[in-house]
Amino acid sequence: MNEMNFDRLKLFLEEKFYWDPKSIKISPLNGGFSNLTFLVETPKGKFALRRPPFGYKISTAHDMARESGIQDALHRAGYTKAPKSILLYEDDRILGAPFFIMEYIEGIVIRNRRPAGIIPKKEEFEKLAWNTIEALLELHHLELRESGLLRLGKPEGYVNRQILGWTDRYQRAKTDEIAEMEKVADWLKSNIPQKENYAFIHNDFKYDNLILEPEDISEIKAVLDWEMSTVGEPLMDLGTSLAYWAQEDDEEILKMFNLTHLPGNPSRQEVIEYYDRKSGLDLSNMLYYYVYGLFKVAVIAQQIYKRYKLGQAGDPRFAALIEVVKAAGRKAEKSILTEKI
Questions:
Q1: Rounded to an integer, what distance in angstroms lies between the CA atom of residue 289 and that of residue 240?
Q2: Which residues form the Aminoglycoside phosphotransferase domain (predicted)?
Q3: Is this model's pTM higher than 0.85 or not?
Q4: Which stretches in the chain have pLDDT values below 50?
Q5: Are 229 and 70 in contact (CB under 8 A)?
Q6: Distance of alpha carbon 333 from the chain centroid
Q7: Per the structure, how many domains does the chain have?
Q8: Structural domain span for residue 174
């Protein structure tokens, strides 16, 4: 984090909020592979700070103004599980990039590791899993027009744009020749569904983006990482979640993003059946959206791996991401051939 000038940030916070710079403590929060999150401890309590990753820029996925604005819009729509934005700074003079500060919500986050003492038991995982799908359904059922959420996206033609966009991103971020990824990209472009639904979608909905109640780990306090949220096809959102929803029989490297492979979690097919009963949508083409989800996860991994290869990101975890790309490509091609999720 030597690219960060925390002294400058502390002086800015003193000017903005009259906080004593000497009493401000800033430390990185462990998290995912994308935007960086820091804990800001102040005389007025704890806050969280978000800024883009260093190095290689990936489209608008790291747009701080947009992420902050989405959280504001969700609160206006009556949605209470998004942290409230406190301050947005769109210049790069303080931290080398725009950033925003939001409320810090105390709770437990289940990462892709097994931290001692807080891994849910089988029964807790089962309840958490269904609560997670319910939370996704809640988002997909938000009212769009009167709330103003509709203005956050362009639902018409969303599926087509996503397929063309992600296949193009893959070509631009490619570092290795992976035959399965090329085949999957061609299949996705050749089978774009004509019928579209639209809803408010998160686009990265999985366990490690949930803050859980410490007293009841199956209950969801808040949802994080709204950077890719928009209005679009909810089945694409579900497909992305299913791509992260690893099962015990999946390749080991595909289990690195989510603990859904542990006992108590339903299978992907059971998740689909539950969503099907509750959503009112036609899920007969869910295979397509699952394959899309796998391809998207692979492209995200590929983009980050390219930053690593270019020397623009030094996190040692990134070195293994090319294996994620290969495994997700294999899984997607196998799903197409077997027509099984």
A1: 8
A2: 26-259
A3: yes
A4: 1-2, 56, 58-61
A5: yes
A6: 23
A7: 2
A8: 122-338
